[in-house]
Design brief:
Elements lengths: L1 E7 L3 E7 L5 E8 L11 E2 L1 H18 L6 E8 L5 E3 L9 E2 L7 H8 L4 H5 L8 H11 L1 H5 L3 E3 L1 H10 L3 E3 H4 L5 E2 L4 E2 L1 H6 L9 E3 L4 E4 L2 H7 L6 E3 L2 E2 H9 L7 E5 L3 E7 L11 E4 L6 E7 L3 H11 L3 H6 L12 E3 L17 E3 L7 H24 L8 E4 L6 H11 L3 E4 L6 H14 L3 H4 L5 E5 L3 H21 L8
Parallel strand pairs: 1-5, 5-14, 5-15, 9-12, 16-22, 22-23
Antiparallel strand pairs: 1-2, 2-3, 4-7, 6-8, 10-11, 13-14, 16-17, 17-19, 18-19, 20-21, 23-24
Length: 487
């Protein structure tokens, strides 16, 4: 028995083949592009996802004979994307992605609608799916009139794999159409967004069977006739499954393109006003909460483009010994911000620059600004009762020991890097596939990896960073209106 975990990201697809004992056998990756036809827009042709998967599977099956023993598939996908299908199942327009901000006006209108926050458990962010459809209704009415089904990116991949319109709870929780506490579509939320229940896919838990691989694909891939496709998960829920975060006190901080601080929850305890996301987990009767910032390593990538130095070069120049904060301060709202502001028009800013400011000072300030933004997330999560004695640190930014020491100090929380091996969304998706095939208990399969080095907060510098964080917190209200009109 082997399982296939598919991680559908914004910039590419990763396919991971896993053996019957949970050991990764091998993986392949394919990349694709994002279209930005107007400021604030972010779109993708779903055909790219299908082509990337077909190509990845061809390589995996050629390289690994065990692929022929495939029994289960799980898909993790970037959340909130609006993939619109007509009655024939054809895509009507490019998918509007999670980082598209064109629907800020529609999001604000939905967010102000009575009972929307109460039922969905969340603010309505411009990146969510419901305001995207409201935007389509207003600006592309002919397309909206033809919409027979709305699928998230992972749901579209499930549709490609099985021929059925089916989606999991964790991904669907980010639409503003799901009653997250009841784990079902809400007719009241759908009506508020101008949608109908028959335009929604069938719901399953991420660890349950969503369907069976289409016979045409099974023949082409050279596998058996009854390969089970799991419900799968949104990318962050899948990452939580890969890192073994299922219960209260378990979580991770991710330094990727965006930044995430996620904690698993045993109970449903939303706090929409804090801009914390409260979503269904990928397994039954569990939830998770997270704070999200839109520009984590993307902030360092921006500085890289400005200075002409590679991101790794910028970070390594700081060394490994944590420095005290300087006068320079960076607010990383390059693409707006989610937690705690829900402000698509917010923009980044440097303060405290002087004639003596150099590249290393700016790099340090960028890493600090991202860390302070993640502390905003931690403060919001603490308000819901979500706390952890320590967190796993994952993502590209976690390769910088300096950044880990800085972040541990700013959060006042020890951080652990997984010792080795797989622990990401692709593994989480493969684990969900295994659960769908075997019916095992989630806690027996979704387990944490071995923790490597534990990064402790620097107590000697904690006070200095607390003071600088207070300056950081005061900056947003002072510059809030500067970026208005640039959503």
């Amino acid at each position: 028995m082997t399982t296939l975990g598919i991680d559908l990201g914004t910039s590419g697809l990763r396919a991971l083949l896993v053996s019957d004992d949970g050991t990764p056998l091998g993986s392949v990756e394919r990349s694709f592009t994002v279209q930005r036809p107007h400021p604030g827009w972010s779109e993708q042709d779903p055909r790219q996802w299908v082509d990337a998967l077909d190509d990845a599977v061809a390589e995996l099956s050629a390289r690994y004979p065990a692929f022929a023993d495939l029994t289960g598939i799980g898909v993790a996908g970037h959340m909130h994307g609006a993939t619109l299908l007509d009655e024939a199942g054809s895509v009507l327009r490019p998918c509007i992605l999670w980082n598209d901000t064109r629907s800020a006006v529609q999001a604000a209108r939905l967010d102000a609608t009575p009972h929307v926050r109460d039922l969905s458990g969340n603010m309505v962010f411009p990146g969510f799916t419901a305001p995207k459809l409201a935007w389509v209704a207003e600006h592309e009415p002919d397309i909206f009139a033809s919409v027979s089904m709305v699928l998230l990116p992972s749901g579209y991949m499930n549709f490609h794999l099985t021929g059925e319109a089916v989606a999991d709870m964790s991904d669907s929780a980010g639409t503003s159409w799901l009653d997250v506490g009841a784990r079902d579509w809400s007719d009241r939320l759908l009506d508020a967004g101008g949608m109908r229940r028959d335009q929604m896919p069938r719901l399953v838990e991420g660890s349950q069977q969503a369907g069976v691989l289409r016979s045409e694909l099974a023949r082409r891939w050279g596998v058996g006739e009854h390969v089970i496709v799991a419900g799968g998960a949104g990318d962050n829920a899948a990452a939580a499954c890969g890192i073994g975060a299922l219960r209260d006190g378990q979580g991770f901080v991710s330094l990727g393109t965006s930044g995430v601080l996620l904690m698993a929850r045993d109970e449903y305890r939303p706090d929409a006003a804090s801009a914390v996301h409260t979503f269904c987990h990928a397994v039954p009767d569990r939830w998770y909460q997270m704070g999200v910032i839109l520009s984590a390593t993307d902030s360092l990538n921006w500085l890289s483009r400005v200075t002409g130095a590679r991101p790794a070069e910028l970070a390594s120049a700081l060394g490994e010994t944590l420095r005290a904060p300087g006068p320079e301060l960076f607010v990383p709202y390059l693409s707006g911000e989610r937690t705690p502001h829900n402000d698509a028009a917010a923009r980044g800013v440097f303060t405290g620059l002087g004639a003596a400011t150099g590249r290393e000072d700016m790099t340090r300030a960028v890493l600090e600004g991202v860390s302070f933004a993640l502390r905003d997330c931690a403060e919001a999560l603490a308000g819901t009762g979500a706390r952890a004695e320590w967190l796993f640190a994952i993502g590209g930014g976690a390769q910088s020991l300096y950044w880990l020491r800085l972040l541990a100090t700013v959060l006042d929380t020890p951080l652990a890097v997984p010792a080795s091996g797989e622990f990401g969304a692709a593994l989480g998706a493969a684990r969900l596939a295994r659960l769908a095939v075997t019916g095992e208990a989630p806690d027996d399969v979704i387990v944490p990896p071995e923790a490597g080095q534990l990064i402790e907060p620097d107590k000697a510098l904690r006070g200095a960073f607390d003071e600088t964080y207070a300056r950081y917190r005061a900056t947003y209200p002072a510059i809030r209106d500067i970026g208005s009109g640039y959503a």
